[in-house]
Amino acid sequence: MPQRITNLEEAVNALDAGARRTFDRLFEFTVGEARVLAPKAMEDWIAKAFAYLAPTREEILSAIRRQKIVHVVNRITGQGTLFNAIRALRPIEAKSADDVQKEIRDAGARCPICGRSRCSFCNVEQLTPENDFPGGRIGKKTCANVAAYDAWHGLVIFEDHSPLHFRTDAFTVAEVADLLATSRAWAEKVYAADPDARYFFLMWNCLWKAAASIIHGHAQMTVARKFHYAKVERLRRDALDYRKAHKTNYFDDLVRVHDALGLAVRWGAVTALAHLVPVKEKELVLVADRFDSPDLAPAVHRALKVYARLGVESYNMAVYMPPLGKADPVWESFPVLVHFVDRGSPGAKTADVGAMELYTSSVVSSDPFDVAAALRRMGK
Ligand SMILES: [Zn+2]
Fold first, then answer.
1. How many whole angstroms separate alpha carbon 338 and alpha carbon 330?
2. What's the whole-model pTM score?
3. How far is Cα 217 from Cα 285, in angstroms, rounded to an integer?
4. CA of 62 to the centre of ligand 1 (A)
5. Is the alpha carbon torsion for 49, 50, 52, 55 positive or negative?
């Protein structure tokens, strides 16, 4: 039987002594059951709305009656996730996939008079602002954000208008390599213009569910001044405390535990983790030793191919890394971490995060063991 997050206890009990010690240092978890007592009048609705759960009415009703909940917490970082698989396809009002494609096409439609695309990102040089450093842009690919998050904020605008380009066979490793190189060149320009701006952050919000306000595919870059963004700095300190307490590297142990549970895959020098405490659905984390690793672009490309195969349309990518400039001893052994998270159907009206995610533990329906199986299916 395939491993499930609901059987985490068995998986942990099966670890060898060394891996078990590392797991216990990093994680704790509880397994509970939500008992849901539906009145007779609800049963027809439940049987229909949750038909994906089981073949028979009685099995569906029984699955709703007793719902297994697994709560996993990373003891070092405080990240936490509540898993309940039955939430996966719970009834949510949604637009159809055709509506989403039409919305993307409409945003890039050409003006019948001048013939130019209405999309500002299809007209980078004419309709986007520049950053305030020599040259203002990297090639014709970057621009400044018209409403900046931070003192240094830029965008890499993709050649292809459709943000769903990553789901097509035309999407290449070379495009990812170009994104990584362009964003890094942008950050180096910023650092040359402002030596306090060392803390580079690269992100990619794909479609409105992931907070993109412009449909045309683009990634974003910021460089923090004086200190890193709060969550990156928090992780650095947590990893440092861990090293002091246990005389071992936190990130190596994180990979070791995922590996021992069957949640890690090696893609050259990059390790892909199906995260045991995902921030939200289907979270993947790539762990690389450096940003310019030749294996990083192929791994990012593969991760997005995995997402395409899993039916993901809207997602966030977020890259953590040590600061720009010469090696800083307080960041020693902090790797490059590339996070991907599925933000749900672009057609869904509800937000995928609520008070639970913002203030407690994330509520997640996707199973990391399923995500790991998808990673393995991509091959080496
Ligand atoms: Zn466009």
1. 20
2. 0.95
3. 21
4. 49
5. negative
| Cα–Cα distance, 197 to 191 (Å, whole number) | 5
Q: What is the spatial distance between Cα 268 and Cα 295, in angstroms, rounded to a whole number?
A: 6
Contacts of 134 (CB under 8 A, 6+ apart): 189, 193
d(CA 129, CA 143): 6
With 80 as the cut, is the pLDDT of residue 153 above it?
yes
Ligand 1 centre distance from Cα of residue 328 (Å)? 40
What average pLDDT does range 45-71 have in this prediction? 93
| 205 beta partners | 316
How many A from CA of 193 to the centre of ligand 1? Answer: 30
The answer to whether 5 and 85 are in contact (CB under 8 A) is yes
pLDDT score recorded for residue 95: 65
Report pLDDT for 86.
Answer: 84
Q: Measure 153 CA to ligand 1 centroid, in angstroms.
A: 20
Please give the distance, rounded to the nearest whole angstrom, from the Cα atom of residue 298 to the centre of ligand 1: 25
Strands 66-74 and 80-83, how do they pair? Answer: antiparallel
Residue 68, judged by CB atoms within 10 A of its CB (0-12, 13-18, 19+), counts as middle
Whether 97 shows a pLDDT value over 90: the answer reads no
Strands (E), 194-241: 197-206, 218-225
Dist. CA 216 → ligand 1 center (Å): 4
Over residues 82-90, mean pLDDT:
80
Query: How remote is the CA of residue 345 from the centroid of ligand 1, in Å?
Result: 21
**More reliable by pLDDT, 152 or 1:** 152
74, amino acid identity: N
DSSP 269-330: TEEEEE-SS-SSTT-EEEEES-TT-TTHHHHHHHHHHHHHHTT--SEEEEEE-PPSSS--GG
Residues with CB under 5 A from ligand 1 (ion): 108, 119, 121-122, 161, 216
